[in-house]
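Task 17 of the worksheet. Students: predict the tertiary structure of the chain below and write it out as structure tokens. Keep your answer in the requested format; marks are given for formatting as well as content.
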Amino acid sequence: MSRLSGISVIFDLDGTLVDSEPNYYEAGRQTLAEHGVPDFTWTDHERYVGISTQETVTRWKSLYGLRASVPELLADKNRRYLELAGTATRAYPEMRKFVELLAGEGVPMAVASGSSPEAIAAILAVTGLDVYLRTTVSADEVAHGKPAPDVFLEAARRLGADPADCVVLEDAAPGAAAAHAAGMRCIAIPYVAAQAHAPEFTRAGLLLRGGQEEFTARAAHDWLVRNRS
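Model answer:
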């Protein structure tokens, strides 16, 4: 029997499994430029890391007084993002190793993301992770995006897992808050270094303040084995 029997693992996608934030930034920068906001910076973008695309463009409409509707902005940003994502998205090497390790032990896995279903599918396909990660949930499919627990609870439901038996991997404070609200343990790998001390991360079972540079597949696996119950 696997040393990890009884555990299910749910991955956030962007900034956790794959380094997609540069593509999200570029898609957002292009979208806003087209709608009359020419100076959207990476620092501006960092405020939206970890929340859904829908919530992001809703905030933009209000903040910048955009004339376009939220559905128009969402479609525009998603279209631009998909064009970028399909050609240039990199899976973090240690995350790929971790997914392969878990797959080898038969651990049920899912992806729960604020991205659209199309973006999730495109990224998993282009990185080859779709071989292992067949259960996916988009924030578009539930009532509320992160920090609400909806995407994680739906992922657990689709896996047939008790939330208490699920461990979430997250890079953003809203996702860590969502995992806690879902009653799940969390391995936190902060993407934005300045957020590493955010209160949402303090409840993580394992917090790697150094982000992806500090994450190793073996250490995460060993932590799961030690913290099965």
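Marker's comment: The mean pLDDT is 95. The chain is about 45% helix and 10% strand.
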